[in-house]
Amino acid sequence: AGRAVGSGAAGAGRDGERRPPGGAGPSGSAANGSVPAAPRRRGRKSKAELLVLKLSRDLQCPAPEPICVQKVLEGSEAPEGLEAAPGRRPKRRAAKVCWCGLAGQCWSTLCAQTVLESWQGRVQLPLFTAGQCLRCSRALLYLQELAEELTSAYQPPAPNEGAQEPEPECVQKKRRRKKEEETDSDDPAQDADFVPSKEVLLQAEEEEGSDAPLSEVSESELEPLRRHSMKTSSAGRSKPQCRGLAPNGFPNSVMAPVEKCSSITCSLREQKYSQWEFPDWIPLVHKWTCLSESEAAPYLPAEEKSPLFAIQREGIEDNGALYRLNRFNSLQPHEERRDVSFFVGGPVWAMEWCPTPEGSAATQYVCLYCHKSMDETHSVAGLHRGPALLQLWSLGTLQQEGSADKAGLAYAVATDHGCVWDMKFCPSGAWEPPSTSRKHPQMSRLGLLAVAFSDGSVVLYALPHPGALRSCKRTQPPSARRAACVQCTTTLQVGSIQAGSPSESGQCFSVSWMPSKPHHHLAAGFYDGTVAVWNLLTKSLLQRVCQPDGSLKLYPFQSFLAHDHAVRSIEWCKANSNFLVTAGNDRKIKFWDLRRLYEPINSIKRFLSTEVAWLLPYNGVTVAQDNCYASYGLCGIHYIDAGYLGFKAYFVAPRKGTVWSISGSDWLNTVAAGDITGELVAAVLPDLAINPLNVKRSSDRRFPVYKADLLPCGPTGPENSEQALPKTRLYSEMVAKAYVRFRDTDLRSFKNFSSREPMRRMHVQEVKAELSLDRLQLESLHKVRFSPNLDSHGWLVSGGQAGIVRAHCMAGLASGTDQQLLPQCRARFSSLYGAEPCSPSPAAASPLPAE
To answer: Buried b / exposed e across 96-115, counting CB within 10 Å, b at 16+?
Structure first.
């Protein structure tokens, strides 16, 4: 409890027994009527008896005068119980002053006296009063619990031995008083974050006379308090019992956070999303030039035909058909599952959905980039320039029940800035209906796209609707409408007007657009570990330069060194735009507050992270990692708290190989990741606002979307055996002797999912999977993206080394909240634009001619 301040320590008798001061004998009471001494007993005493004896001895001494450290005059002699500091200022021991300052009584004396009198049944611990501070209230609550433990642990001796008999009525009153405190509206369980520990008391003894506030205590000292606070608050918080199964087959405890996140996402988007932003950046007809076949040839991918592949769907008999697609062609969506597959011509390394307003029912587009050759490699060091092609694919009007439209290439953008590492669309305010009438030469805008290139620049494009572009270029022959060369709207560059060379920071690997309106900030991470932030609406002459061709060149208003090596991924917090997270090649994940960049909020060094995803409702990020630095059994997907709540890392899903990409859905509270083994796995997250330490059976929360396997297609080996695959890294040799098999999971329902074949296969893959690193990983998945739009929020698109991009609908994860939000958003969209939900005509939505 605490030590009484003052002199008068107990002395030892002739027989070695400890006696209280005042001359009391071993069997009699003290002359002054104080508490009788404990009876003489043989053997070792219990801890409770020793504590009671110590308290009784200390309290029988003459009560010292109340000491208040603030009243000790400088230069006066230090009173007894305090040690004089070198500057003649008394050195404070552990908690010598009552924190709330009531009556100036020493806190340690209050502790000892209250515990002993409560144990003897003399007094009742007082209720919390308005005059007491929160910490004193917590201290009294702790003393009351300690007194109860002593009462239950120590049985008082018989009356003939000199000990007092506890009064049953006082004990009953004390218990009634405790019940009243527990039912009080202040709820003491919420304030139970004070636990006197040895570390805190030792630190208080070593402190000088300074009155440092509790907020300045180091993190190591607050760690035990934070742990106890989390345990108490989580134990005291009443959580609704989610028992039984949801209609989709998942337990209600798994689907409850999905319902919650859907409501939070919708309400927060109403506050932070805008209807219209950047009105000056409108696509113009004269800035778009259609290329002929000879002009477009250097930009097109080299592979004209896809590798052979087969699709096996769960619950549907396999007919053994093998498919081979031409470049920019797609398969017809399946009648029941509605999955979409198309071939883009090369390995996919960048991909993003085009945002549309909630309830617009508009055509969904996916923009992506692939390398020109299957064997092409790029060094992260140095700058690289060259031709590249951005592809915009139309997936039709996607709904939860599926898509009836065939995917097609809407148009492609030819650039000369080198390969693309990342791309991001403006989250809101950049889309307008395709039927919007604009005067020539303006075209209706589809979105604003920021692209990170290997030449160290970030380029912004104002993309038009495909129908608007096609109508303006009707005079061009069909062969000249395969690709378009467009003049960029704005170029973002690191440096300054005096030193504007992009070689200062190296290649740009990741970009992130500010998620809150007006979306005027954009951040990017570079090879040398620098993070730069641009103000897209700046009018400063030092940051904004007009180019002769009418475009803009912007310089950052803020840049800082975030890592010792390349910044692999950067993500903005969707709930508060003051925070962002970065992951670098130095194996560190850092959380930053843009208002105080001299040090990160939290820095974690564990493994080499490839990509991070920050879901809207939570105070942390899900991380995909490379397996080169991972401990055995810990490679995969982790959720890491930013540091405010102090939660330990939550292991979302184990993976055997490197996880190249991860994406999160704010609507579904779900993350999906693709790895080098060719497996696309999704996991429904628990409510991470509560400590996930007690989450049970996390394996039931994850499920495979599909698994890609590379199998031999000739007579060189047995069927479905990987031993017969050629040990080569050349695409031409591998594609001649092997094919890719996709095994899809039925995502319409999750009933009896734990016993179904895809789940059993996934668990076996997690334990016994083997990587064949001596051959080309043609089945590897490099990019995964959830649709951010409410109209298509259940759709997931993925692509990898084979150049085959696939889109799947997770209809089984649809919640009741989503079904209620969609009609409301469509009605709001109709009232806003004065028309029915946007549904472009077939002519406007039809893709350009494909090969």
So the answer is: bbbbbeeeeebbbbbbbbbb
Q: What is the average per-residue pLDDT within 803-809?
A: 95
Mean pLDDT calculated for residue range 535-553: 89
Please, which residues bridge with residue 546 across strands?
A: 552
Instruction: Please give the pLDDT value at position 184.
Output: 44
Per domain, the residue ranges of the chain are: 11-236, 285-845
Two structure tokens written together for 43:
């053997």
Single pTM value for the model? 0.71
Q: Phi first, then psi: what are they for 485, rounded to 5°? A: -105, 125
Longest dimension (CA), the chain: 117
Q: To 10 degrees, the CA torsion angle through 100, 102, 108, 114?
A: -110
- Per-residue pLDDT tens over the stretch 345-401: 999 999 999 999 988 889 999 999 999 999 888 888 889 899 999 999 999 988 666
Contact, 417 vs 378, CB < 8 A?
no
Instruction: State the Cα–Cα distance between residues 14 and 286, nearest whole angstrom.
Output: 109
Contact in structure between 496 and 542 (CB atoms under 8 Å): yes
Average pLDDT over every residue of 185-193: 41
SS (H, E, C) 747-785: CCCCCCHHHCHHHHHHHHHHHHCCCCCCCCCCCCEEEEE
303: pLDDT confidence band, cut at 50, 70 and 90? very high
Whole-angstrom Cα distance, residue 805 to residue 810?
Answer: 16
What is the assigned CATH class of domain 285-845? mainly beta
Q: Bridge partners of 743?
A: 312, 707
